[in-house]
């Protein structure tokens, strides 16, 4: 989306935001279910299985938020959205929160009438090409046709990088990343440009994944995180601190399996997190058990990553920057006290 269209959308959303200010938590509780915007389908993030059940890290973050709100992770309605649809759906109130591989940027945070909440995954833009092309240096991509999704940071990053390096490319723009994946396999484009985790997720679904290579270079910072409407600080707090609680749980060694037993810990941080001391839940106007309900439902941050994206999955990603800060990564919970 062009900066002008972002600005127009943001001005419209600001008007809607005032009407919705402070109401989201009450609306969600009254409705009895969370409307959560997710991707239309990317393995490891949000993809319906053969039974129609949404699977993936983003889908489970939606469930974790539902568990924090209702004590029941099933009280969530998944709304699949393309990159073009996602912000409008949030601005209009169709969804309560967007948890859909969305890069947190200044322009999005300041012009759309929305608010970027917190980072739940650190990523970076990359390219995937055919192995037979024998490309190791991205500068060898001069003149290629590159599949991109419109309305994404990847469209801009690709154009900027080629322009900076005085190279040319032809964009093939398609809203659905699955369409880009099919186009690459069919030879209608020579590469896909998007975030590295998404490239790995797409390749895991290919008929012949070994025929394609994800180049090691990264061309941008792409921090993913939930997005909510602006001017509803109460709802912003609920979403931000639920994400933080899952990171804090890993820092403290609290898992989906041991959370109940850990309530007897003498550690004040653990007792606050798990609701033995109700101060955190009171501050969010939630049940004291809000965090332990989320942890028991979907696990701590490390469990989420390993279950959906880690080395033992088809996607096979190392945690890298998404390791805890104590392990050399960037994941760090604000103090929950």
Automatic annotation (TrEMBL):
Extract the SMART domains matched here: PBPb
Which Pfam families does this one have? SBP_bac_3
- According to the entry, every stretch annotated as the Solute-binding protein family 3/N-terminal domain falls at 33-262
The answer to keyword Lipid biosynthesis applying to this record is no
Key words of the record: Signal, Transport
Q: Where is the signal peptide, in residue numbers?
A: 1-21
Which superkingdom does the taxonomy of this entry point to? Answer: Bacteria
Q: Which GO terms describe its biological process?
A: amino acid transport
Task: Report the PANTHER family cross-referenced here.
Answer: AMINO ACID ABC TRANSPORTER PERMEASE, AMINO-ACID ABC TRANSPORTER-BINDING PROTEIN YHDW-RELATED
Question: Which named protein is this?
Answer: Amino acid ABC transporter substrate-binding protein
Q: Which organism is it from?
A: Dankookia rubra
- Phylogenetic classification of the source organism: Bacteria, Pseudomonadati, Pseudomonadota, Alphaproteobacteria, Acetobacterales
């Amino acid at each position: 989306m062009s900066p002008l269209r972002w600005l127009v959308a943001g001005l419209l959303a600001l008007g809607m935001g005032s009407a919705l200010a402070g109401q989201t938590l009450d609306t969600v509780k009254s409705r009895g279910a969370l409307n959560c915007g997710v991707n239309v389908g990317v393995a490891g993030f949000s993809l319906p299985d053969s039974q129609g059940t949404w699977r993936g890290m983003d889908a489970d973050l939606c469930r974790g938020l539902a568990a924090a709100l209702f004590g029941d992770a099933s009280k969530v309605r998944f709304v699949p959205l393309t990159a073009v649809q996602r912000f409008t759906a949030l601005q209009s109130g169709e969804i309560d929160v967007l948890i859909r591989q969305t890069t947190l940027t200044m322009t999005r945070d300041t012009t759309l009438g929305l608010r970027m909440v917190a980072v739940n995954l650190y990523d970076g833009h990359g390219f995937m090409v055919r192995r037979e092309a024998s490309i190791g240096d991205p500068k060898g991509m001069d003149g290629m046709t590159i599949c991109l999704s419109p309305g994404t940071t990847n469209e801009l990053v690709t154009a900027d990088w080629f322009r900076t390096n005085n190279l040319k490319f032809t964009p093939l723009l398609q809203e659905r990343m699955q369409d880009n994946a099919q186009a690459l396999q069919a030879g209608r484009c020579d590469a896909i440009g998007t975030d590295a985790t998404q490239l790995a997720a797409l390749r895991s679904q290919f008929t012949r994944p070994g025929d394609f290579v994800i180049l090691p270079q990264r061309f941008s910072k792409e921090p993913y995180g939930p997005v909510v409407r602006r001017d509803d600080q109460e709802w912003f707090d609920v979403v931000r601190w639920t994400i933080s609680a899952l990171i804090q749980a890993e820092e403290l060694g609290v898992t989906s399996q041991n959370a109940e037993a850990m309530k007897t810990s003498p550690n004040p941080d653990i007792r606050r997190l798990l609701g033995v001391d109700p101060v955190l839940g009171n501050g969010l106007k939630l049940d004291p058990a809000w965090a332990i309900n989320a942890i028991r439902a979907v696990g701590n941050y490390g469990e989420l990553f390993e279950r959906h994206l880690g080395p033992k999955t088809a996607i096979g990603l190392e945690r890298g920057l998404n390791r805890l800060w104590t392990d050399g990564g960037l994941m760090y919970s604000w103090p929950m006290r």
